[in-house]
Write a structure and sequence with these properties.
Length: 207
């Protein structure tokens, strides 16, 4: 049984940088953003279900999910958004559990879950690592990365749990706006040792 580490954080807080650092250490990383695309790939039962619920206007001519269209349908409609989440999130979680089981022989596995606290998925993990930065830095990164207005960036931040909540629930914290890339890599290297020791203790306890 491997130690299950959830990597989370607000949008544009530097999760991808931390993920890359773990990958360089050859740690198994599961990305829920990638899984969210896999579960609605062309030909999947879930994509067919979404088309039945939201109409085929959410499909491109080659029968792929038109994410922009789907977002426009649910963005300002709480009921439709709730319906979408009720379909998507269980499928994503099921896939995460399958992949974690595939890596059961590893000392630990990192699962990148941007909406960990919003989805209340904490119970599925042994450890929580939070990527954090000042909100102004977060806003600037988001505006630059996505080419969006400050107003929209603020709206996106307000849709997530507060920074204070994430920090209070973190067992490990990396402040990405206060560290260089090399310092982040060094910190991840230290966490690697911590997680391997925790995994060993977990294994010893279950023997």
């Amino acid at each position: 049984m491997s130690l299950k580490v959830a990597l989370t954080g607000g949008i544009a807080c530097g999760k991808s940088v931390i993920t890359e650092a773990f990958l360089k250490l050859e740690v198994k990383v599961i990305d829920t953003d990638l899984i969210s695309r896999e579960v609605v790939a062309p030909g999947t039962a879930l994509l067919s279900r979404l088309a039945a619920v939201f109409s085929e206007q959410i499909l491109t001519p080659d029968k792929c999910l038109d994410r922009k269209m789907l977002r426009s349908l649910v963005f300002n409609d709480p009921i439709k958004l709730k319906t979408l989440n009720a379909l998507l999130h269980p499928a994503i979680l099921a896939s995460v559990k399958e992949k974690m089981a595939d890596y059961a022989a590893e000392p630990y596995v990192v699962v990148a879950v941007p909406l960990l606290f919003e989805l209340n998925w904490q119970e599925h993990f042994d450890r929580i690592l939070v990527a954090d930065c000042e909100e102004e830095v977060q806003l600037q990164r988001l505006e630059k990365r996505d080419g969006i207005s400050r107003e929209l960036a603020l709206k996106m931040l307000s849709a997530q749990v507060s920074r204070a909540t994430r920090r209070s629930l973190a067992q490990d914290l990396i402040e990405t706006d206060k560290l260089t890339l090399q310092e982040i890599s060094n910190y991840v290297l230290k966490l690697d040792t911590v997680y391997r020791n925790l995994a060993k203790n977990l294994t010893d306890t279950n023997v």
